[in-house]
Structure formats: C-alpha cells, structure tokens
Amino acid sequence: YVAKETRSGVATYSVYRDHNSADRLTLLGELRQALDDDLLTLQYQPKVSLRDSTLMGVEALVRWQHPQRGFVPPDEFIPLAERSGSMHLLTDRVVMLALAQIAQWRTQGFSVPVAVNVSLTDLLGDRLGDLVSSGLRQHALPPGMLQLEITERVVAQGSEGLNAGLRRLDAMGVTLSLDDFGTGYSSLLRLQSLPVDELKIDRVFVSKLSEGPAAIGIVRAIVDLAHALGMPAIAEGVETEAEWLALRDLGCDGAQGWYIQAPMTAGQATEWLRARSFQAPLPTSLSEPAE
Ligand code: C2E
Ligand code: MG
Ligand code: MG
Ligand code: MG
Predict the structure, then answer these.
(1) What pTM was computed for the model?
(2) CA pair distance 72, 64, nearest whole angstrom
(3) β-strand 40-49 against 254-255: which pairing, if any?
(4) Whose CA is nearest to atom 43 of ligand 1?
(5) What is the ipTM of this complex?
(6) Where is the EAL domain (predicted)?
C-alpha cells in the first residue's frame, strides 16, 4: 500500500493510489474485520448559530485508525463499503454509537442533537428506520435529538424507495439535513417536495467567498432558497473569520468548520461542552453581536 503525508505529518492511506484491486480487496476484508472488532470510532464537530454562537448540534464523523496503515479517511472506505454491500454494517455501528453518545451527554446535563451521515442504500428498505426507532426507544430519546445527513447527490436520484425511506424517517420525527448542497443536481421541484429540515452549503462555495461578487451571490442565492423552502442554511468548512463574517452578513443561519472547532474525540467533545457551559459561548471574535 501507499502512504501519503498529511499536513499534520500523519501517514494516511490512500486507496486511489492503490491500482491493485487485490489490495482493495484486502482493505475491504480489513474493514469488515474492523467492524467486527469494533475499531471504528466517531469524532464530533459542532454546528453553531451565526447569530449568537449558540450550539445547534454536532456532526458525527466516522474514523478508522488502522493498526498498520494509519488513519484511513472516510472518503476512502465509505465508497468501498457502499460498493461491496457492507454499508449497512457501518451505518448500524455509527447510528448506535451516536445514540449512545446522545444518551450519555444527556445524563451529564448536555442536550446535544447529533447528526449522522447516511448513504443511498441506507435509505432504501426498512433497516435504518427500524434501527433508529428501536435505538431511540432503547435510550429513551426524543427523535429530534437524531439528525440524518443525506447528500444532495443522493436525493437528486429520487427513486420511490428513497422517497418512502425519507418520508418514514421524517414521520418518526428525526431531523433530515441536505448535505453538500450545490454539488448535486436536484431540481427545484424535487427540493420543494423533500421532507428535509436543514440545508448544508457545500464547503466549495464557502471557500470561494473571498473571490468576489459572483461567489458571494451564489451563497446568497442558496441561503435565500433555503429560507424560501422554510429551512435554515448551515455553511460547511468555515475556516476563517472573514468567511464567518461574510456568511453572517448574508443571513446564513449556522456554521461548521475549523474556524469554530475541528472534529473532536468523544472525550474532547465532552470537555468542550463543559468548558462552554461554564464560560463565554465562544472566543470573543466569534461572538460579537451582529449590527
Ligand atoms: P461531510 O458530511 O460533508 O463532512 C464534512 C467533512 O469536512 C468532514 O470530513 C470534516 O472533517 C471536514 N471538515 C470540517 N471542517 C472543515 C474545514 O473547516 N475545512 C475543511 N477543509 N474540511 C472540514 P471527513 O470526516 O473526512 O468526512 C468526509 C465525508 O465522509 C463526509 O463529508 C461524509 O460524506 C462522509 N462520512 C463521514 N462519516 C460518515 C459516516 O459515518 N457515514 C457515512 N455514510 N458517511 C460518512
Ligand atoms: Mg455531513
Ligand atoms: Mg422533518
Ligand atoms: Mg458536506
């Protein structure tokens, strides 16, 4: 296998450099083993209000620390799980970990909605709905504490099975969030008919904000579209104060990104929640009141 260097200097495995399909098969076997051995963990990244910096929830992001290969990014193994028919095993694991974390935070006095990313196959059939419904009951959680993020690319496909899956989850009271918005190809008609509750603006649009009026206009149009559909807009991948301020001025509702907080382990996230509940909501640069 090939290791590449990340900014942090940590070796990262890349399957895309692995042209040998035998190696891919090995990785898949190792992923199945990692699921069996419970080696996947979650990190949590806050979504905060752009108006007053209050916490809106956290997104759970799956992590695989491979004993030999090092950190394998989700963009490498999620597609592998999807193609090989083992996605449901991963999603089951992630949903159960997220629900247990919501329950644990509640016992510690923190009421934090947690968002989990799901893929197309999860939404077809009854498996995810059954799991969510029994998991919520098992932990005695209000359904609104769980959010599910679905990429726009996935919902654009719009099969009857997918629509039924989304309707069932919506009817259960789970919050649905449209992820990576602006990079899929959903029609406006499709958007209007979707039972989604939140729209997440893809990071590519946020990172172009400094490029000028056209890029700003696109983000404004997305925010206005979300509001026209009765949903809040959350910007992803906010890395700078300039982006934060521009988004706030455009009327965007929430933000997520390294400028606010990078993804954290469960332990770090608990400390983060504790520190915030006893101190100012966020560093002052983040909590100036809007004009
Ligand atoms: P996503 O759902 O759009 O998640 C946001 C990604 O942006 C995460 O990458 C996060 O770590 C990263 N990020 C957060 N803030 C910043 C920032 O300020 N700048 C930049 N450049 N990046 C930022 P990550 O964790 O590598 O996940 C990548 C994708 O993998 C996710 O994109 C999601 O589609 C998928 N994914 C992650 N966890 C799961 C999971 O449990 N299940 C499924 N089905 N997909 C998952
Ligand atoms: Mg997401
Ligand atoms: Mg709903
Ligand atoms: Mg996204």
Answers:
(1) 0.91
(2) 6
(3) antiparallel
(4) 117
(5) 0.98
(6) 24-277
